[in-house]
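4.2 Preliminary Data

To establish feasibility before requesting continued support, the project team ran the inverse folding procedure on a target of 267 residues. The structure was first converted into the token representation described in Section 3, and no sequence information of any kind was made available to the design step. The complete token record follows.
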């Protein structure tokens, strides 16, 4: 398992957390803080993010295989898998490819089917495809106060400490040799065809599945949670987090954790 970093805290049944593009395992720190006394909490840094190295292939299917590499390395089975943002798309592909590793699946606001990338994020992806995003993003390293006005900032209800957010997520990406270009390649590789291709497998995915969706998200409307409910036979319910935005698992972890506990207890 080359160049993949991860958080591994606690003992007990395994919960594996997958973040999306532009964040990292740090996104899950509050969730893990509440659960590590009762679960073994593993949170991956997807390639390029956090302490993980970049790779040539940064497509969503390739990221799913990086998750599989970690599972193989750690010998993880009977996993309660949890994903957010692009990480939710990664989890969908992982689930249909590696069903045997899963006990349950939880998806929070994330890319779904044709909403990949979401329309509100498409201008950012287009900047990446033109090779113009890395330079613009690098400005945030010295001027974090500008974060709230970016697509990244739109993922939060409020940002009390933009410098801390930039240091946790963006500097680890842009600080790597070639990190800016790799970030552009990753965003440009987000393609709906990868999730459209797995729709037939999702229609027969019986793994118990929970959907927890922030209703204030600019990128992933509640209608996409309903699409998942109507497509995946294993879906048990949709839980709505009123006003929650994309990164509510970080901002409002205390509201997510009780639903995870309840769902996992049902098995």
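Position-by-position output of the design step:
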């Amino acid at each position: 398992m080359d160049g993949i970093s991860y958080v591994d805290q606690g003992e007990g049944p395994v919960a594996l957390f997958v973040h999306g593009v532009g964040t990292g395992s740090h996104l899950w720190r509050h969730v893990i803080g509440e659960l590590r006394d009762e679960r073994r909490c593993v949170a991956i840094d997807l390639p390029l993010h956090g302490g993980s190295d970049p790779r040539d292939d940064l497509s969503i299917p390739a990221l799913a295989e990086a998750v599989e590499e970690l599972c193989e390395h750690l010998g993880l089975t009977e996993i309660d898998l949890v994903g957010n943002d692009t990480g939710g798309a990664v989890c969908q592909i992982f689930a249909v490819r590696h069903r045997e590793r899963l006990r349950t699946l939880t998806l929070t606001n994330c890319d779904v089917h044709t909403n990949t990338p979401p329309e509100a994020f498409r201008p950012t992806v287009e900047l990446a495809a033109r090779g113009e995003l890395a330079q613009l993003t690098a400005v945030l390293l010295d001027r974090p106060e500008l974060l709230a006005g970016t697509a990244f900032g739109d993922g939060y209800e409020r940002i009390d400490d933009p410098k801390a957010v930039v240091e946790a997520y963006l500097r680890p990406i842009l600080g790597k040799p070639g990190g800016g270009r790799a970030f552009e390649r990753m965003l440009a590789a987000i393609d709906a065809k990868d999730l459209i291709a797995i729709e037939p497998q999702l229609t027969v995915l019986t793994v118990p599945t929970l959907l927890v969706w922030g209703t204030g998200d600019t990128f992933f409307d509640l209608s996409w949670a309903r699409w998942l409910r109507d497509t995946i036979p294993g879906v048990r319910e949709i839980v709505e987090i009123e006003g929650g935005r994309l990164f509510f698992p970080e901002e409002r972890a205390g509201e997510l954790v009780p639903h995870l506990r309840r769902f996992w207890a049902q098995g």
